[in-house]
Write a structure and sequence with these properties.
It is built from 6 helices and 5 strands. By secondary structure, it is of the alpha+beta class. The strands form 2 sheets. It has a 3-stranded antiparallel sheet with strand order 1-5-4. A two-stranded antiparallel sheet has the order 2-3.
Amino acid sequence: MVGDPQVKKKIRHAAEAEERAFYERLAPGEWLADLAPLGTDWHKPFLETAPYLIVVFRLDYEPERLADGTARAHKNYYVQESVGIAVGILLTALHTAGLATLTHTPSPMGFLARILGRPKHERPYLLIPVGYPARDARVPDIVRKPLSEVRVVV
């Protein structure tokens, strides 16, 4: 968890650089059109204004020192699934506690490992700003599909 204002500032600047490159050069027009109603762009001030940033890393493997002194990478299995489930539980707990969150996935996210001094076997998975919602916070009016359109009964 990151609360230091200087570290959050570094994260914001690095994330905005990645996001700006994506929005200006890489994002497909259809993607930009779909996001337009949400008002999202490469500016990410919430990365500094949120009291805390939770940075979730995944461990695809763990370094292991063998008895003979050699090293090997011990592979972890079902990493994406396990981390995804854990993040879902974390988000639910934070929301239940009355906190506001946002899942943020700048791409690529390697800058997070560099800024936070994480070892190479830890890979950034998700960045979660956490805090109380601002008084003037706007929540997009997203219409969910009715259950009858998404449920399949066999």
